[in-house]
Amino acid sequence: MSSFTEAVVLQVGISVLLALGYWIAVSTGKYSFGHTAFMAIGAYTASILTLNFSWPLPLAMLASGAAAAVAGALIGWMALRLSMLYLAIITFIFSQLVNLLISQWEYVGGASGMIGMTGTTVPLVLGCVLIVVAYLVLLSRSRLGLAYKAIREDERAATASGLRITRIAVGAFATSAAVTGVAGALSAHQLMVINPELFGPRQALLIILYCVLGGVEYFWGAALGAVALSLLPIYFDWLNEWYEIVYGLLFVALMIVRPQGLIGRRGGGRIRLPRIPAGRERESVG
Amino acid sequence: MLAQQLFNGLLLGATFCLVALGFNLVVGAMDRLNFALGETAMVSAVLGALIMTETPVPFPVAFAAATAIGGGVAVAVYYLSFRFVSADFPTASILSSLGCGLVLTAVVTKAFGSHQRSVPDVLSGVRLDLGVLTVSGAQLVILLLATLLTAGLYLFLERTPWGTAIRAVSDDATMAGLLGVPVQRVILLTFALSGVLAGAAGLLTGLAYHSISPFDGFTTTLTALMIIVLGGLGSVTGGVVAALVIGLIQTLTVAYLSATLRDLIVFILVGIVLLVRPQGLFGRNAGVLERV
Amino acid sequence: MIRAGTAGRVTAGLTAATLVLAACGEGSGSGGAAVYRIGLVTSSAGPFASNAKTMEAGAAYAVKLLNEAGGIGGTEVELVKVDSQNNPATTATLIPQLATKQKVLAIVGPVDSAGCEVACTAANKLKVPIVSPGAARPGVLENARPYGFTIAQPDADNSTPVLTKIVQEKGLKRAAIIGDEANATTKAQADLFRSVFGSTGVQVVKTATFKSGDSSFASQVTSVASAKPDVLALAAGPDDAGRIAREVRSQGQTFTLLGTGSLQSGGAAYVAAGGKATEGTLAAAQYDPHSAAPAAKALLDKAQAASGQAEIPLNFAYAFDAVHMIAKAIEEKGVKSDSDGVVKGRVAVQEALNGMRNHQGMADATTFKDGIAQRPQLRAVVQNGKFVIDKSAG
C-alpha cells in the first residue's frame, strides 16, 4: 500500500470514527456542538503519554478514551436534561474552555502545541473502526439501543416507560466522548502535530456535518457521510476555488431534497404525533 | 479612563444589539435559528465599504445600500434554507443556513481576497471632548444610527399593523393564520427586517473596528446567539439589555484582564444564566427555548 | 436482524469502495513522460487564501521562466498544484498524494506556518524536500528536518538587531506592547519586543492583549493611551496591526508605531488595513521589493513588467526563489527525471538545498541554516502609503 493510499485510509478511518462516536450521542437525540473538546482531550492525553512517558500508542489510546469519557460524563450529567439549544450552547462553551486551557498550558506547548507524535497505522485505525462498528451492531440489537431510540423519540414517554433516561443518556454521551477521544488520539499521531487551533469550531462543525449528511437514523449513515465528506476534498480538488461554494450549495440543496440526510426514512423514523407540523400549517394559511 | 472604557463598551453593545435583534425576530417568527445572519452582516459591510471607497456617494447612501443588501441576502437565505426546508428536522435549517454562510464567505473571499477590508472613517474631523471622555465622529454616527434603528424597530413592532402581525405570528403562528394574518408574507417581512438590521450592524461594526474580514460572520452569529440566550429568546428589551451587558463585559475584560479571557467570561456568564434562569433575563417563557 | 445485516454489508461496501478509490488514484499516477515535477500546496480557503494566490503566481512565473530557458538541462519542469482548503487533515493526505501519486521531486508551500507545520512534518517523514515561502513561526520546522525548509526567517532572529537599533536611535523611553497571547506567532513577536526593550532599558508601561481577527481595538488603545508611552509595539498580523493603527490615530494619539518583520512581510496588507494612520510606522524587514542587488534587481524588474505589479510581494518572490533553488539543486546533482530515480533524486535535492550558500534570487541572498533561511536584516518605514526600505540605516 503506497503512502497515499495509507493516508487516505487513515483520514477516512479517523473521520468514520469521529462520525460514529458522534452518532452514539445523537442516537439519543442529543446534539453536541463541542465534540472537539473530547477530541482535544483524547489527542493531548495520548500525546503527553506517548511523548513524555513513552507509552505505546494503543495503551495511550485507552487512557485518552477514558479521559474523554470522564469529561463526557461530567458534561452530559450537567447538560443532558436540557433542551437542544441549551445542550448546544453548554457543549460549545465547554469546548471553548478546553481550548483556552490547552492554549494557556505551557506543559503542552501552549498556542504552539505539541509536535512529533507518530504511530497511527492502518491496522490500528481499521481495528478501532471494526470494534466500534461491532459495538454499534450489538447495540442496535440490544435493549439499550432500543432505549436510546425511545429517548430520541420522546423523552417523556421513555420516562413513563420506566427508563432512567438521564443515566442512559449520560452513559451514551460518555461512550460517544470516549470514541471521539480515541479518534483524537489517532488523528494526533497521524498529523504528528497538534495545537489548539485544530480543535476549534470548524472541526466541531465538520463532525456534525459527517453525521447529519449521512443521516442520523442509522449509524452507517453517519459513517457514509464521513467517508463522503473526507473523500470530497481529495477527489474533487479540480473544483479548486469553487470547492467551498459547491460544498455549501450541496448542503443547501440536500436539506431541501433530503432533510433527513442521505440515509434514512422521510420523517426521520419518528412516530408522528397528532401535532400538525408548524411549517405545513403555515403554508396552507399563507 | 473608566468613563472612556464604559463608553467603548456601550458602543460595542450598540452594534451587537442590532444583529441580535435581527436574530431574535427570526427566532420569534419561525422558532428556527438563521446561522447565516452573521455572514449576511459581513457581506453587507464588505459591499458597503466598497461603495464608500469606490464611489463618491455620501455615507448615508452607502449605509442605506448596506441595509438593502442585508435585507436582500436575508430574503435569499429564507428561500434557500427555510421556505422549502422541512420543519420536521430541527437540524435541517441550521445546517442549510450554515451552508449559506459558507457560500457567502467563499464568494466574498473569491471576489475580494482573504484580507480584511478597510472601512473608511466618517466625520473624521469631528472630535467631542467631554472631559472624562472623547467621542469621535464615527462613534457618534454609530451610536446615533444604532439607537435610531432600535427605537424604530420597537415602534414598528408595537405601533404598526405589520409589527403587530409579526408579534402575532411570533406568539402563535397557527392562531394568527386562522385570524387572517398572511403568515407567509409576515415571515418574509421578518426575514427582510432581520437582514436590514444585520446589514446596518455589519457596516457600523466595520466603522467601529475600522475594517471587515470575510471570516467575521461566524463570530457575529455566535455573539448574537449568546446575547439572545442571555436576554431571553424573542424578547426585544432583553436583547437590548443583554447586548449592552455583553458589550460592557467584553470591553472591561479586555481593559482590565486579558483579551484571551474575553469570550470565555461571556460564555461562562451565559452558561450560569442558562442553568439558573433558563428563559433568559427577560424571557417571558421557556416555551420558545423548548421549541427551538 | 435484517437491519444489522444491512449495516454489515454497507460497512464492508464502504471500506471496499474507499480502498478501490484510493487504489484508483494510485494507478493513475505519473506516466513515463520525462519532466521534473514540483508540487505546490496552496489553499483557496481561510485567511491565507490571498497569500497562497500570490505564492502560486510566483511559483508559476518561476516555472514559466525556467521552461522558456529550456528547462533544467533540456527537461521541462511541471508544477503539480494541490489545494489544502486550509484543512490540516486534507494537507496530511495531499503530501503523500504528491509524493506517491504525482512522484514530485520536491514541494513548494504551504505559505502559512500552521499549514507548513503539518505539511513539512509529513513531507519530511516521506523524505520529500519541502520549501515553504512564508512560514515564520518559531519552531515550525522542529519535526521537519532535514527535508523541511522555509525561506522566511522567524522574527526573533531577523528583527532583534534592527529593532534594537531603532529604539536606541529614537531615544525611546516608555513602551507599550499589544499582542495576541493565544497565537503562537504574535506571542513570539511580543516576547521579541520584551527582550528588545529589556536589553535597551526601555520601560514597558503597558501590555494590552487582543484576539486575532475579531475585535474592536477601542478598549486596548484607550488603556495604552492612558499609560502615555512613546512607542507602541505591534505584535500582530498585518491586518490587525493596521486596525490598531487606525484606532490609535482616531483616538488622537501620536506615539510611534513599531512592528517586527512580519508587518512588512504582509506586503500591502498593513497599509491597506490602516490607511493614512500607518504613515511613519517603523519596522524591521527581511525582504526588499526594490532591491539594489544586481541579480535581484534584474529579476524584480522583469517580474514587474511581466505581472504588471509595481511592487513584487514577498510571497511571490519567495515562491519564485523556492522553485529556482530546487531547480538549481536538481541541476547541481544531475538528478534524473525518470520516475525510478525519484527517491534518490529527493535525497540529492535535500542535500543540495542544505548545502546551498548565498543563492542570489529575486529576494536577495538566501542561505539555509538548519532549514531556515538567513535573510538580510533591513529596516523599513511607511512613507506615502507604502513600506520603504530605509537604505541609509544599513
From TrEMBL, chain A:
Coiled coil: none annotated. It holds the Pfam family BPD_transp_2. It is a multi-pass membrane protein. InterPro entries: ABC_transp_permease (IPR001851), LivM-like (IPR043428). One of its GO terms (molecular function) is branched-chain amino acid transmembrane transporter activity. One of its GO terms (cellular component) is plasma membrane. It is found in: Cell membrane. Keywords: Cell membrane, Membrane, Transmembrane, Transmembrane helix. The keyword Transmembrane applies. The keyword Cell membrane applies. The chain crosses the membrane at residues 7-25, 31-52, 59-78, 84-102, 114-138, 207-236, 242-263. This is Branched-chain amino acid ABC transporter permease. It comes from Actinomadura darangshiensis. The lineage of its organism: Bacteria, Bacillati, Actinomycetota, Actinomycetes, Streptosporangiales.
Automatic annotation (TrEMBL), chain B:
Its main location: membrane. Coiled coil: none annotated. Keywords: Amino-acid transport, Cell membrane, Membrane, Transmembrane, Transmembrane helix, Transport. GO terms for molecular function: transmembrane transporter activity. GO terms for cellular component: plasma membrane. The chain crosses the membrane at residues 6-26, 59-80, 92-112, 132-157, 186-212, 224-257, 264-282. It is a multi-pass membrane protein. It is found in: Cell membrane. CDD domains: TM_PBP1_LivH_like. InterPro entries: ABC_transp_permease (IPR001851), BCAA_transport_permease (IPR052157). It holds the Pfam family BPD_transp_2. GO terms for biological process: amino acid transport. Belongs to the binding-protein-dependent transport system permease family. LivHM subfamily. This is Branched-chain amino acid ABC transporter permease. It comes from Actinomadura darangshiensis.
UniProtKB/TrEMBL annotation, chain C:
Coiled coil: none annotated. Residues 1-22 form the signal peptide. Keywords: Signal. Gene3D superfamilies: 3.40.50.2300. It comes from the Bacteria. Residues 36-367 form the Leucine-binding protein domain. InterPro entries: BCAA_transport, Leu-bd, Peripla_BP_I. Belongs to the leucine-binding protein family. This is ABC transporter substrate-binding protein. It comes from Actinomadura darangshiensis. The lineage of its organism: Bacteria, Bacillati, Actinomycetota, Actinomycetes, Streptosporangiales.
